[in-house]
Amino acid sequence: MARLRIATFNINGIRSRQAALLQWLEREAPDIVCLQELKAADSAFPADALREAGYSAIWHGQSAWNGVAILSKGEAPLESRRGLPGFEADTHSRYLEAAVGGLLVCCLYLPNGNPQPGPKFDYKLAWFDHLLEHAAKLLTSGHPVVLAGDFNVVPTDEDIYNPRSWLKDALLQPESRERYRRLLAQGWTDALRTHVGDERVYTFWDYFRRHWDTNSGLRIDHILLSPELAPRLRDAGVDRWVRGEPHASDHAPTWVELEMGAARKRVAKARG
Questions:
Q1: pTM
Q2: Model confidence over 3-26: pLDDT tens digits?
Q3: How many domains does the chain have?
Q4: Which of 55, 109, 180, 202 is catalytic?
Q5: Which domain holds residue 168?
């Protein structure tokens, strides 16, 4: 059966970590990749280097901040949207959507929201509200959809090494978590949590207080699957080794594997 590996990775600066990105792509060979925090203008995106590595790409850059991209091995992503609908006043490069591999892939970088309370947290919640509205429409579109990216939300206390140290952080605020719960309640499946069950798994370790060395992490990078895709989930994990490399991003790539062939047969049989 054909398996499709989809990954999300907050690269935290694609220019300074291009070599690390290419190393990861060569070693793990994901089929589709969502990148966040490019921190580079469109003109600085390394499209040629990625093409040599076997990946087509679309990107939505921004100088020094934000920025998202979707990579695909072979088939080029067909862009369908950049920026959230109804939020045209937003000047940040945080959302990119494309058809690729028979799926609709949505790459997002949700605002951090710190410090809170304040305008940055208000912006985070407003952005999340627009995402909720758009995500609901995606579910009714009839397309198989993947929502992947850095959500900047720790869903529960089981997704962080020690919530007491982060109680005032925007990532753990009740308003942030409640919106994430509302997103899942629409019908999305949190693929990594579904696959690993109660296991402690993290995707982010900040650069302070030896948090990587002591595995003091957070789970804030998520891949959500629409109801049609959820039964196809066969594997999921975090490429932790990437975080342990020299000059690494503070995130590690998160990935899922979907069994596409089996799903198509099940759908065909059901319709028959």
A1: 0.94
A2: 999 999 999 999 999 999 999 999
A3: 1
A4: 109
A5: 3-271
